[in-house]
Design goal:
By secondary structure, this protein is an alpha/beta fold. The protein is built from eight helices and 16 strands. It is globular, with a radius of gyration of 20 Å.
Amino acid sequence: MPQHRRTGWLTQPPAPVLLLTLLTLFLSTCPAIAWRPWPDLKHNTSDLLGDNKKFEGSSEFVKLRYHMGPVLTANITVHTIWYGTWQPAQKKIIREFINSISAVGSKRPSVAGWWKTVQLYTDQTGANISRTVRLGAEKNDRFYSHGKTLTRLSIQSVIKSAVTTKTRPLPVNPQSGLYLVLTSDDVYVQDFCKQVCGFHYFTFPALVGYTLPYAWIGNSAKLCPGTCAYPFAVPDYIPGLKPLKSPNGDVAVDGMISVIAHEIAELASNPLVNAWYAGQDPSFPVEIADLCEGIYGTGGGGSYTGQLLDDHDGATYNMNGIRRKFLVQWVWSHILNYCTGPNALDQ
């Protein structure tokens, strides 16, 4: 950022520079739109949950409210930016998960069944979140165009590059587009591993040119699998806790799947951070997936994932995709007033 010589009390940086400075400060001090899967490290939702009745976060004290903002009611198209070095097999796992969200005919319990809870959320006209989530255009950034250390704000610069490049830019669709920035295992993003494994927000027109809902999720394989690939890896500070076997043979990418699901669910129900969330502070919202951190099955809560399924090879999962199995965190149902998923035993 250029330096500006101060010649008096009224001298200020040019408006665009001042605006970007304010945006940088805002993004660096707004941890609400972030997530990590280890339940003991979640942000302060204990005062929202009260006493568990069904273990899965059930409480009459949760005040999840609709704040009149938009939700994604048009068919959702997920545009993916592969930032850094990705193997074809890793991309295939993630693509198949996204394609499974709207799949018809998947074996129960299914990813599509999980999405049905997200679909229950509506906008102020009563229109539900779209049942259709499809994979859109993709962009590869193999040469780390913005470096291997990214800030929250530079994630938006990565998106700007992808939608403005002269060669096959990503489509710009503010109404139903959803943009995923996925960073490879040699990229460090601000607060990664320390506070977050992923976050979502929307791009600033002053920086990107458009207001686009987006999420970032990192590959934790080299940096912190015990933090961000739980329960397929476990933190070093918890001796004796054994990791579960991942269903697709890639601990970090299988761990990413649940974070991706978490962020897509919250982007659909709270794309501009003014729709569905609990809490009084819009700069620190607790959203529909935040309320269910660490819960993957019936009885889940605290450090217990809940009752899961075992594959024939010993891998652990809780829902089926088109051809693969996945472990995905549950989300909050404002109809049932507790966390739920397609593998719930009371369904």
